[in-house]
## 1
Amino acid sequence: MATSVFEVDCHVHAGAERRGVALQQFEAALRERGIRCAGLVDHAEFYIADKPRPFVEALRGAGCPYAENADGFVAFCGDVRALRASSDLRLACGLESEFIDRTPQDLLGPPDFVAHCFKVRGDGKDFGVEAAERIRRFAAWVRPSGKPAVVHHPFRCRVLAYRELLARGEAPAPERFITPDDVRRIADAVGEAGLFIEVNLSTVHSIGDSPEALALYVHAVRLLIAEGPRLTLGSDAHGTAGLALTAGMRRAVSETGLTPAHLQAACDRLFGGTCAA
Ligand SMILES: [Zn+2]
Ligand SMILES: [Zn+2]
């Protein structure tokens, strides 16, 4: 078992967004950070024909090493597997899809795992109900592939919405904005489908300027851990600079009570064994 949760990072963007940096350089940066198990992912939307426009514009011409089609994604997964064969790190390749309705099933074949880029804010609706509905749709979509599947950053958009309310002086108490019922519904949807769900470090980074929003995030993750779903931990780094751990991230994770034991199932399923040396 890992001795620190930070030895595991299941969400590192290392495909189209590598921007010309060799995967070997990426591996060196992971090792320097003390990571032993890394999930290297790329956005499905980069490789599909029916692309959400702004997304592609942001990546195009930025030194992307892969073709913008299914062959490009096959090449990315091949590069990760080639590196894995010669690396002392445990590596897995993953597909992260936001627009699951536009992502063809054949993109689910190449990766070791599939993740959902979860963007539910819960505006004007019951957050827990909408989130659980969304998770069940993802579960149904990924199930035929038989791949391990992860819900990425489940509270990110909800916490960002809270920060907007804070700025307007309209925020309710944290425990009323993400409730135990909300989190139970999310954990139930994840548990019944055998999914994993992420504790996401970039969420901490995005709201680091707001102690109240950070308190909401820690509160939500504590509730999630108490519900007992299988967890991953992810930096959501886009590029090697995003791998750096800030004091705020370390503090937030320690306040949630996350331990290596919570990540053991993910280490077993995604990386085929323990994340120990
Ligand atoms: Zn995402
Ligand atoms: Zn991501």
## 2
Amino acid sequence: MKRTCTFMMVGFVLLLMSSCMSAKQGTEGHQPVEKEEKGQGQEKETNPVQQKEETKNEGDDESWIQQKEPVELPILMYHSISSGNSLRVPKSEFAAHMKWLKDNGYVTLSPEESYRVLSTNTKPSEKYVLITFDDGYTDNYTKAFPILKKYGLKATIFMIEQSIGRPHHLTDEQMDEMIAHGISIESHTIHHLELNRLSTEQQEEELKGSKQFFDQRFSQRTRMVSYPVGRYNEATLKLAKEAGYQMAVTTEPGHAKKEQGMMSLHRIRISPGLSPESFGKLVEGN
Ligand SMILES: [Zn+2]
């Protein structure tokens, strides 16, 4: 009896142990698998997105070419697309310029991309350009915009705050439509006064006030200011930076370079009467 009892008890204990172990194995064996599956599942769901973003960023960084020599950025300066004086470029000529850029493989930059070029000394491609218009004339919308859209080119318009909606100047609706198609609206101050003739307080108001206005109006970070009539002084450079602009453009001729000072970048004036070839030489810096 005793023997049988002991045998049964040992058997029972063994049975208990084995079932315990199998349960333990089960949990141990199962949970990690579940974890692993979950982990893999998460990886499958989230990592490709992260990887994609990383690849995209890396791709962007890789496609931007780091330069040893200081980069030069051609910033083209247009005003009105019409005819009548030395600041007005006829539509047919403007169209030929844009076609030249497209045919010659130029990439047009946004203010943000332009800042990246100059501040990090990298190129987004071999050929790149920033197209700008001063004053925000209506013909920028009626004549230039259809051509820019046709060729898929970006451009920047320096708008005078108080001119919005005034005769011969862009309206709110026109600016909104253009922004939706790659056009940037940046500051040409509030009143288009020659900054070097103003007091520090007035300059500050023109620079800071217009930046705040354009920031709010377009829910953007306004990065650039174009000094009216290209006039500025030492105080302007300091105040423009303090106002929060990343770059400011003048009317001094030539390609923009960082060494000019980010608050006093040069531009290439596009005058009427240029053939596409002469235009090309200006852009290329020949
Ligand atoms: Zn102007």
